[in-house]
Amino acid sequence: xxxxxxxxxxxxxxxxxxxxxxxxxxxxxxxxxxxxxxxxxxxxxxxxxxxxxxxxxxxxxxxxxxxxxxxxxxxxxxxxxxxxxxxxxxxxxxxxxxxxxxxxxxxxxxxxxxxxxxxxxxxxxxxxxxxxxxxxxxxxxxxxxxxxxxxxxxxxxxxxxxxxxxxxxxxxxxxxxxxxxxxxxxxxxxxxxxxxxxxxxxxxxxxxxxxxxxxxxxxxxxxxxxxxxxxxxxxxxxxxxxxxxxxxxxxxxxxxxxxxxxxxxxxxxxxxxxxxxxxxxxxxxxxxxxxxxxxxxxxxxxxxxxxxxxxxxxxxxxxxxxxxxxxxxxxxxxxxxxxxxxxxxxxxxxxxxxxxxxxxxxxxxxxxxxxxxxxxxxxxxxxxxxxxxxxxxxxxxxxxxxxxxxxxxxxxxxxxxxxxxxxxxxxxxxxxxxxxxxxxxxxxxxxxxxxxxxxxxxxxxxxxxxxxxxxxxxxxxxxxxxxxxxxxxxxxxxxxxxxxxxxxxxxxxxxxxxxxxxxxxxxxxxxxxxxxxxxxxxxxx
Length: 541
Hints:
This protein is an alpha/beta fold. Helix content is 34%, strand content 19%. The protein has three domains: 5-82 and 240-324 and 479-540, FAD/NAD(P)-binding domain (3-Layer(bba) Sandwich); 86-233, no CATH class; 326-471, 2-Layer Sandwich (Guanine Nucleotide Dissociation Inhibitor, domain 2). It has helices at residues 15-26, 67-72, 104-112, 116-140, 151-165, 169-180, 183-188, 194-201, 217-223, 243-256, 299-306, 314-321, 352-355, 364-377, 427-443, 461-468, 520-532, and strands at 5-6, 8-11, 31-34, 46-50, 53-56, 82-84, 89-92, 97-100, 228-229, 232-233, 237-239, 260-262, 267-273, 276-282, 287-290, 293-295, 329-336, 357-360, 379-388, 403-412, 453-459, 504-506. The strands form six sheets. It has a seven-stranded mixed β-sheet, sandwiched between helices. Helix 1 (15-26) packs parallel to helix 10 (243-256), helix 4 (116-140) packs across helix 6 and helix 6 packs across helix 9 (217-223).
């Protein structure tokens, strides 16, 4: 064992790893973050992908980051700034469009173009989701009760269950429906217009390899609305400087607290001695000692690749063998010479819809078909595409007059079926073909889009795995399904951020409350580490 010893090592310098490191260091622990890549931030980074063009490479928009984390880390002092969207989303359809956001009255007026009944239903729907989202916001920074745990877990379960029990009975019904129902069936209870339902159903397929008719997809819809921006609940915004500005601010806060951050330092294996963590071995062979290790990599990568199977209990090995990953995500960034000119809302001059999330998902059947295609053929014949053009509000990302756009695309299988000739194929064989297909899909709605592209950066599901360590290309570190949520995330019996090996903790999106740039897993894992070390009171010092 090497002589360099730390109180805690963090595997992975993504945002949750940085959050965890900050709280541990603030409590007086000697902490080192070990990041595989040349840049800190994990999937929340800003990189130049063409001369003069920078963009958020993977994660691309902000809402879910917990206000407590922002305040505790004093991120604003380190350059954190978010610009809210004027309207949240713009949905082009073949012969019409819908704008979502800008206030309740404005949204109602939009809905009334398609259904007066839907316009009248919207305030009650908004209120129903907000009541449930408030409970999720409260639960996000609480450790789930551990199945089979002791008195503390029992009391925690009672406290967290009480918040749900205090909801009116109709809200409790909504909670139950959102955990088990499909997004389609949930939205059918509220709305009649397919256009209106589509505006909400899109959230149910973001990072979810499933259709809007898939049971449980309603929860994914809810997961994307419990955030807030600058105090506005449910809002989404753009981090000035891209998502990397957030993690750079976090890194600065960590270093101020005394955290040591090591780049290009990939961890190969955990060292286990007598049933507890003793440190890590790096890819180059160096060993670093620590009696506490917090893993910000996904559970699948941690327990399948970094820990010897012989060091894991048999029941845990079986549970992890069944842990499901794969979000069906294909990510692109493109440099543009001009803004897209949409057939249903013409104009290349900057307008509010260019600053919104531009979502090509025209209809619930379209979204279901996208998933059906992916399961049969590997990718969608008509994919779901969200376009975000951050340079419309942040001109630091592109040269004057030009723009950058993020394309977040669903549904794309990680494992591809054989090609038409019967031969096996992988994403390296078809990534450019699929990228062309995605661009053609956008161009069908904005005819100038393809000709305006100067350069592009492609991240297939396989690229997401190789570049960011996202097993199966899963942006959430694991499916957000009922059997992999709350106390069962990643598996039942280990929902409290503690691994099955003493001293091993999990602090990434594969733990409660799940994916997205929230900072909650990192915050909560630090909470439990400090509790175990008798330093809990210092976390809030």
